[in-house]
Backbone:
């Protein structure tokens, strides 16, 4: 008999029971508390012994309270079901009416499911540990982090779905009738959840087409930032101001996405201002040596398209333009390479006794 059916036919005397049943229930609660304490002590040790994955071990270790609560709920649930069975078999000792039994069983099942779902949510970190084991270079790239983000989102959805099924079963809901009811009102639900469905298919499109990966720097609809996570509903960007921007995946399908992470090279152009009194021969040698330094740099490419030449002469300075291409993927590496090259340029200028333009010096002459 389902819990909902018993509730509908409940009478005024259905909560009655005897002292032995009450004592048995109290005993079950005590056993549950003992089981929780034991599980909270043993589960971290068991995890450390069995799991050699650092993130998963840490996550499960922090879930010891949830696992302990699940153990307690399991003990109490088994005892309540036993008492209910004894009552239905006409036992003289156990007297647990259907309403009370099924209500308590449903509540305990709910506690059990919620506890297991919480622990399972934290155990999702096993995906990253598995990817670390499969990775050869000990460093996760953008594609691997994208896979981790997607798989973790799918696992969380599956965990919630399974948890929802068990909760429905705990309260005696007929899933077949529920699904049939959803079929009748499916159109209304589809209209209400169209944004969620669009975001889901947007996530599928992003994962299949791969317009960007986790770690790429992108511009989406005026928002610029690093891709931190790709979830089933949204994609999360972290801006240069360290703020978080959540972009619905449906928008990513219909908007232009500029991905700086897909660049084959990074162009850098700058102009140096040499003192107007500089020796022309020294300036020519300066340009040649800068070009040689650029071409000898292992972090540059397109050497034939790289150049350093006098771009113009003003009333105060000789303007020397530099154009080169970095073979670098990250902004941090580019800043470091740019700094090294600029210091080399300073050394070259000193070797040739060239001075950079200083308006204060020119005015004092």
Residues:
């Amino acid at each position: 008999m389902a819990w909902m059916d018993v509730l509908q036919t409940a009478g005024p005397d259905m909560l009655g029971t005897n002292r032995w049943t009450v004592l048995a229930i109290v005993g079950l609660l005590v056993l549950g508390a003992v089981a929780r304490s034991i599980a909270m002590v043993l589960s971290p040790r068991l995890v450390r012994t069995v799991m050699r994955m650092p993130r998963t071990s840490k996550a499960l270790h922090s879930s010891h309270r949830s696992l302990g609560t699940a153990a307690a709920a399991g003990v109490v649930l088994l005892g309540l079901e036993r008492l209910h069975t004894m009552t239905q078999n006409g036992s003289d000792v156990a007297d647990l009416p259907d309403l009370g039994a099924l209500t308590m069983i449903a509540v305990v099942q709910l506690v059990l499911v919620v506890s297991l779902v919480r622990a399972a949510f934290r155990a999702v970190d096993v995906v990253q540990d598995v990817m670390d084991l499969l990775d050869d270079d000990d460093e996760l790239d953008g594609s691997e982090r994208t896979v981790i983000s997607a798989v973790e989102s799918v696992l969380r959805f599956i965990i919630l779905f399974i948890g929802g099924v068990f909760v429905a079963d705990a309260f005696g809901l007929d899933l077949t009738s529920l699904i049939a009811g959803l079929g009748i009102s499916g159109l209304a639900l589809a209209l209400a959840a169209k944004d969620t469905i669009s975001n889901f298919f947007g996530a599928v499109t992003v994962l299949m087409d791969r317009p960007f990966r986790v770690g790429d720097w992108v511009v989406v609809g005026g928002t610029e930032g690093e891709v931190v996570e790709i979830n089933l509903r949204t994609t999360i960007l972290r801006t240069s101001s360290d703020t978080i921007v959540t972009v619905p995946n449906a928008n990513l399908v219909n908007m232009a996405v500029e991905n700086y992470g897909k660049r084959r090279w990074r162009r850098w152009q700058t102009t140096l201002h040499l003192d107007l009194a500089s020796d022309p021969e020294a300036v020519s040698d300066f340009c040649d040596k800068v070009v040689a330094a650029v071409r000898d740099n292992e972090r540059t490419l397109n050497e034939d398209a790289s150049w350093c030449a006098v771009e113009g002469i003003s009333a105060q300075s000789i303007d020397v333009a530099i154009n080169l291409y970095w073979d670098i993927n990250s902004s941090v590496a580019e800043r470091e390479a740019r700094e090294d090259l600029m210091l080399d340029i300073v050394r070259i200028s000193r070797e040739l006794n060239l001075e950079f333009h200083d308006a204060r010096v020119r005015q004092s002459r």
Q: What stands out?
A: The CA atoms of residues 132 and 267 lie 34 Å apart. The chain has three domains: 3-173, 195-200+210-262, 266-364. The first helix runs from residue 3 to 8. Residues 195-200+210-262 form a domain with the SH3 type barrels. fold (CATH 2.30.30.60).
